[in-house]
Specification:
With 289 residues, this protein is an alpha/beta fold. It has nine helices and ten strands. The chain has a single domain, classed as 3-Layer(aba) Sandwich (Rossmann fold), CATH 3.40.50.620. The longest helix has 15 residues.
């Protein structure tokens, strides 16, 4: 574990496609939340999904953020290099009786109403199996989101027993993000509201592993004219050139966060310093995913 300051935030993109405008809004929001209080800002590349992620895309994301003036205060980590860390966490959960091997198929879970509550049969020792975290009935998680307010969820009712490692051996996002945040000393998580629904189960997993729970802030999502969330797989109406127009892009992200205008600055590092000084998280509009 690294020695951490009062605030240690992070931005953790998945290299499944180029940074889109919504990613830049999340990066800027996480930067301002951390730097406003003289905290650290860490960049982590979340390439745990080997099927969808690409190393060169991750390198381009790093270059794009550097063009915007956002440099990681700590060494950049790649989740694909952290398997031993995840194995240790799963072994702990299995020893403590909080996780179990499961051979239920997607069809089995569908027949349960889409939420895993109990295995159809026990896995043989020699049989490939996923690892699930057991979520007892009436597992209520409440947290105060800095943007969205008080959130309450019955994790058992909402998601049931959830997968930590797939039967093919690949670790899931839910496990990797919790373990890496704890290992890196992240105590402030600022991200898009599309991940708000993952937060309660992540907090429950933190509790099972004995980790501290960070503060959370979920930023508003960008949507197209039909109301769909903008992502790497949707056309973004804001065409931009990060290398040549960094301040213009930062300004557009700043406006999305409903902050007061910053004028007359053309260099991204200077612009970010001004933004840090002027940032007021209370102006960010709360939205649901």
């Amino acid at each position: 574990m690294i020695q951490q300051p009062a605030i240690h935030g992070r931005f953790a993109p998945s290299p499944s496609g180029p940074l889109h405008f919504g990613s830049i809004v999340a990066a800027l929001g996480s930067w301002c939340f951390a730097k406003k209080h003289a905290g650290l800002w860490t960049l982590r590349i979340e390439d745990v999904d080997h099927d969808r992620c690409d190393h060169e895309t991750g390198l381009q994301q790093i270059r794009d953020l550097e063009s915007l003036g956002m440099l990681s205060d700590t060494p950049i980590e790649w989740q694909s290099e952290n398997d031993a860390r995840y194995i240790n966490a799963i072994d702990q959960l299995l020893r403590d009786g909080h996780a179990f091997r499961c051979v239920c198929s997607r069809a089995d879970v569908t027949n349960m109403g889409g939420i895993h509550r109990a295995c159809i049969r026990h896995a043989r020792d020699d049989e490939p199996a996923s690892i699930r975290l057991h979520v007892p009935a009436n597992t209520h998680i409440a947290f105060d989101d800095l943007v969205c307010g008080q959130i309450n969820e019955d994790v058992a009712q909402a998601v049931g027993d959830f997968v930590l490692r797939r039967a093919d051996g690949q670790f899931t996002y839910q496990l990797a993000v919790v373990v890496d945040d704890a290992h890196q000393g992240i105590n402030q998580v600022v991200r898009g509201a599309d991940l708000l629904e993952s937060t309660a189960r992540q907090i429950f997993l933190q509790q099972r592993l004995g980790y501290a729970t960070p503060s959370y802030a979920h930023l508003p999502l960008l949507r197209n004219k039909d109301g769909a969330k903008l992502s790497k797989r949707l056309d973004d109406p804001r065409a931009f050139d990060i290398e040549n127009d960094p301040v213009e892009i930062l300004t557009a992200a700043w406006v999305t966060l409903n902050q007061k205008p910053i004028n007359g600055i053309t260099e991204p590092t200077e612009w970010l310093q001004k933004a840090t000084d002027a940032f007021d998280f209370r102006r960010i509009p709360a939205t649901e995913p």
